[in-house]
User: What shape does this take?
Amino acid sequence: MLLPLELPAIVEACGHAARGELRELISQDQRLAAALRQTPFARPSQQVGRLHLMRMRPLRDDRLVQRYLKAVESGQASGWHTLVYGVTLAVYSVPLRQGLLFYGQETLATLAGAATDEPIEPAFSSLLESLTERVFAAVAASLPAVETRTAVQE
Assistant: This one.
């Protein structure tokens, strides 16, 4: 789910938030619901997303955050963690590449930690390194399309 679904969702949500596109963000949220509702990750994703969105409530001067929070509270949107993460990157002006790499590395590290309580074996470490390289490649591949779209729109 990380490469085909989560990273592109973060990129798209960050773009919507940076441009103040609430309707598009809510539409993305609803499209993501169709893909995630039947997965075991749906409820935790919503819980984490809502928690982080609630922590952004004090940002009263950020209209998109306030309006997205209202949409989530009213049930119009789900508040998926990937979308809230993308909004967070935009709100705090975190460079997209840096945010995506951090997200990918943290996700893999969390999964690796959950997979074993033992010290990581060399073969497992090699697999984790290979997966990390795939995340780097996916991030690099997703950024030119975003930069090109943004340049074309301006």
Observations:
- DSSP finds seven helices and no strands in the chain.
- The two ends are 32 Å apart (CA to CA).
